[in-house]
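Re: weekly structure request thread

Next one in the queue (121 aa):
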Amino acid sequence: VQLVESGGGLVQPGGSLRLSCAASGFPFSRSAMSWFRQAPGKARELVARIDYTSTKVKYGDSVKGRFTISRDNAKNTLSLQMNSLKSEDTAVYYCYGDHAFRDWVAPDAYWGQGTQVIVSS
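Done, posted below.
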């Protein structure tokens, strides 16, 4: 199983970034996918989650209206469009794959290595 994130980097406040996650080795098209993030000294938090048909989506309260999660099952790719970025969005962002759309982290789920996003002027 591989989840490889890309697209992180340094961006100014108010700017945009698009993260991607390339998945392989598991049934991506039948898996719920999520983005989590973890800032230094803070707990990991859910950013966004999408079910395998893209009909059910959930966002963390802090990113609602600014971030958009999407997926392309034909390309086994998960994306996160991040707009109006704030300094508090600075974190390592992780791609996460699960067998179900659920509100807890499953022990048998899949994680990427993470990509760093820094929002700073």
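The mean pLDDT is 96. The radius of gyration is 13 Å.
Next request, please.
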